[in-house]
Every structure is written in C-alpha cells, then in structure tokens.
What does this fold into?
Amino acid sequence: MSNSMRQRPPTLLLGLAIVAVLVSLAPLSYLVIRLGEFGIDKVIANVFRERSLELLANSVLLALAVAASAVVVGGFQAWLTTRSSLRGRALFAVLAALPLAMPSYVTAYAFTALFTGFRGFAAAWLVLTIGTAPYVYLAVSAALMRADSATEEVARSLGAGRWRVFKEVTWPSVRPAAVSGAMLSALYTLSDFGAVSILSFDTFTRAIYSAYRSSFDRSGAASLAAILVVLTIALLLIEPALRGKSVVTDSRTRKYSEIQLGWFAPVAVMLASAWVIVSLVLPAYSLVRWNQTGLSQVDLGEVSRALINSVGYAAGGGFIAVVFGLAVSVLAIRYRSTFTSALERSIWITHAVPGIVVALSLVFLSNRVLPEIYQTSTLVLIAYLILFLPNAIAAMQTPISQTPRELDEIAASLGASRLQTLRRVIIPIAGPGILAGGALVSLAVLKELPATLLLRETGIET
It folds into this structure.
C-alpha cells in the first residue's frame, strides 16, 4: 500500500475511533475528580501504605500466573484441535470455548460447593484460568488456521523436526494472537471481582468494592482504582514488544495435513478430557445438584423476560463493539502512525478498571452532563463499550494484520475507495475474526454483573 494511502485514514473510521477513545476514557475523568477531592498527599499516602503494596503484589502475581497458564492451556487446545490427528477434534473444539459462557463467580461458587476449603491464590488461579483460557484458544485457533502452511511443509521437507518448525515457523505466525489473548486474560484477572471475593483472595478489585461499600467518600477507592490504571498502562507499554511483528498470510483458510500424534495420542486425549472435566463437568455437576431443590420455585415467566433482556443487551453490546472495534483495528493496522497507535492503546487503559468503578463514573458523569440517558439502555451499552471493546479489538487485529496489503493495492488500482476496499476486501477475509470479536463481547455482556445492576432501567431484569 502506498504511503499516502496509509497517511490518509478514512474520515468515518477516524471519527468512530475518536468517539470510542473519548467514551473509553470517561472513567478516568471521574477518577481524576475524585483524586482531586482527596488531595495529592492523601493519595500518595494511600498508594504507598503497606496494605496497598500487598494488594499490588497479589494482583500482579495472580494476573501473570493466569495469563501464563491461559496461554499454555489455550494454545495447546488450539494446536490439538486445528493441527493434530486427535480423535474427536470437532467435539473438543466446541468444549474448549464453552467456559466463556459461564461467569467466573459462578464457577467459583460451584467449586466452593464441591470442595471444602477451596480458597486463596491457587483457587483463584484455577477458576480464572478456566474463564480466560478460551480467549487464547479462540485467537490462536484462528491464527493457526490462517498461518502459511507452505512454509511449514518446506521446513519439514528440509528435515526440520516438529519443535524447530513450531519455534521458527508456527510460533511467529501465532505469537501476536497468543499475546493478545494473554493480555485479555491478565486484564480480566485484574478487573475480576466476583471470583476473588467468593474465594477470599484479596486483590485491588475486592478492596475497591469494600471501600465503596463502607464509605460515602469514594476518593480512597478511586486511588486504588488509579493503581489499576497504572498497571494497565505498564502492560500496554510492554505488549507491542511481546507481540513481535505480524506475519502476513494468504486470504484463505488452509487445509493442513494432520500431524500424527503417535504414542502421544492417548496422553493428548487424557489431557484434553481432564481439562473438560475440570472446566465444565465439575462446575455443571455442582450447579445441577444445587439447583435440584430450587427449580420448582422458579418463575419461568420472569426467567423468560430476563433472558430476553439479557440477549438484547448482549446483541446490542456485541454490535457496537464490532462497529467501533473494526474502525480502531483497521486504523491501527492499515493506517499505522503514532496517532492511530495512540488511539488504539488508549482504549485499553480502562479495561482493568472494575465494572463498579465504570458504572459509578457513568452515573456521576451522566447526571452532570447528559441526564437524559441516566438509567436508560443507552448508558448500559456505553458501559459495555468501555468494558469490553478491547475484547473485540484483540480478536480482530490478528486476522486483519494477516490480510495481504497487496489486495488493498489491487483494489485501489481498480478505482475502489478506501471504504470500498474495507467492505469488499478486508471485512470478507477477516470476517471470522470480526464475528469472533462480536461473540466474545456478547458473551462477556451476558456474564457482566455490577455495571448492569447499577445502570439498567428500573424494572428491567437480566
């Protein structure tokens, strides 16, 4: 693509991206106001007190542990279901993504009902790994299906072993996807409240919620939330180096010759089955056992209305995330500059901020700036955009970056505008990743609790 084309992003995409950034950064203005009320001396004292440093260590250690295990579990599942000769691959592919449908706090409750003493760091690590491994699995699976098979086959024909082919050919092509999934896992862990609360493991989000509940003065909790923002910025600064350079592929999903597992086949089946038991069977069994005595008292009409409302919110949240996420992703990849990169990075800054902080910031700002949207579905959807837009962007970036730029040049030479090229070339090729981004956001909306409870319209149940 020509340099001039890169430097002139479409006005529509630029406008959507700027709106997305302004909306995403809205909670920061709330935090700044609260911190200003608190006073700089008190903020510094609160940040550097022993309790805050303990929370910092707990939160960082848990986030890193969950991200690492999510990459191992999700990456291994992706390789097994897309490249290997594993029996029942199609079934395992579906089962690998299913934990996304269960909120982490529900999984935590299910395990505590089954196992006495299921508490602390290890318990939180397991539950959050179950909830976040599908992020890595979906991203890496899509990247593996679009990676250049010819290069791998040439490497094998030249005598390279499986490990060398993976390290020098396969890994560079899936590394950006794996890092994006790990980033989502880490930020999800930093922002999680339900699981760590049930499992009695102290992190910033648990302390923030306790501070909001125990005092009318929100400033102390705001100072803790500000530390989460700083942590997120630190992750964003190192993430590009971890991603490495994108590897361009052709525009088709390739069919690979299966890698024969040989003696490892039964081990792979046992490992995959064991994870299904831990991540799905045990939680489901616990919930079914718990619900057996209460199902007769459920009002099916009320449940049906709540389900319809939840699906409506999920569809709306997924749609707006796709629209804004596509604009941001295309700008960051196809029209890369310091400005567009800054726009994309800015959206991630508030991703680790707990939902309760986002909700309170929107209540605060809407009452002062636009009271007409207070307690409306519009405000709820804005909250979902702030909370989950990075999920969509993470899913879209790898397939968009793998789309050959030469196709853009061909379209331009045939007289297509930049928006026509986006609609006719980029979107069809990157379609699976774009749809995956929308699906991830919709699932996240279905699981979201604090923002929905605080911002929903009166009488609307989910």
Remarks:
- The chain has a mean pLDDT of 83.
- The chain has two domains: 1-30+298-462, 49-287.
- Residues 392 and 437 are 4 Å apart (CA to CA).
